[in-house]
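Example record for the data management plan.
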Amino acid sequence: MAARHGGAFALVALCLFELALRGAGAGAGDGEPLMPAMFVFGDSTVDVGNNNFLPGCSADCRADYPRYGVDYPSHAPTGRFSNAYNLADHIARFLGFAESPPAYGSLPPEGIIRQMRSGINFASGGSGLQDLTGKALCGRVHSMSDQLDMFASVVQMMGNCSSDLVSRSLVFISVGSNDLFEYVGGNATSCPNRNDTAFLQGLVAAYRSNLQELYAAGAKKFSIVSPSLVGCCPSQRFAGWLRDDLDGYYCFGTANSLSRQLYRMLLSMLQDLSVGLAGMNFSIYDSAAMADSVFNSTVSSPNTPMKVLDTGCCGGAGLLGPAKCDMSATLCPNRAAYLFWDGFHPTETASEVAALALFADPGRYVHPINITRLAAL
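Corresponding structural encoding:
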């Protein structure tokens, strides 16, 4: 049976919504955006279609077929791993844009520099901090190294005029979950001599290097989303059950432990890095802590936006097993009641709640400042 908790979380979300409206000012499309541009990097949580244009990328790592996009304005798949908008879209809308900037792969060569003036999305579903992440499942993805190379190439083409634009714009990054999925899904967790700390340190070192490259290209304002409790994705609940490794949420315990550790290590790295890079400012979102609030809540409320926390809306992935989200999949009638859209990804509702926290949270989940304050610097 699906878990049905979250009233306290709903109250937090409603308070954050009011704060976001006050802090962000006008909504999408009204007046000037809070930042001149937004540049997006990462994985399927923020990909808006780059993998659609990537030869050799398998269907498992694309979302260009129904039922993805069923609630998007066009009611058609766009490459977003969601029923509608994803996290990048909601962040862009709070900044004052209509939606996420377009996928780099969708742009004609002659339009890339012009599009840089308001932003580009470089994210690629299936990618991770490690260059090999996603290759076995997807065949081909744009790794974080690839994404940074594309960005640096465009910045170089822009010449001196890029410096001011990039330094005042938001660099938004959501990556790391796929590295964790592959680590716990392989043989590493069954090895008695495995070294989780060394693995996580490798991810943090890669993240640090990526940020240094972006800073060298002119970026100064970073919004970082740490991986959520990846063991609570419906597909990972089943994986945890198979390994007899379920925590108190009936989620894959080892995966969740790694998520919590990685956040603390990323925060420490960012604090250290920002001291040495003049003018660098950051905001990091503790997705794992937010997820803890969701799963720990026992207060019921008729206004709770999400009541089904353990099952995917599209296909019904969960403890009973994995399931694909495609045209043959069963679709839940009330998407807003579900935390998860498919076996891995949040619904539009869940992504919007996360975006609200990123924009307006006073310090419970976002540190040291939220995006509203970051934009004002």
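Summary line stored alongside the record: The longest strand covers residues 38-42.
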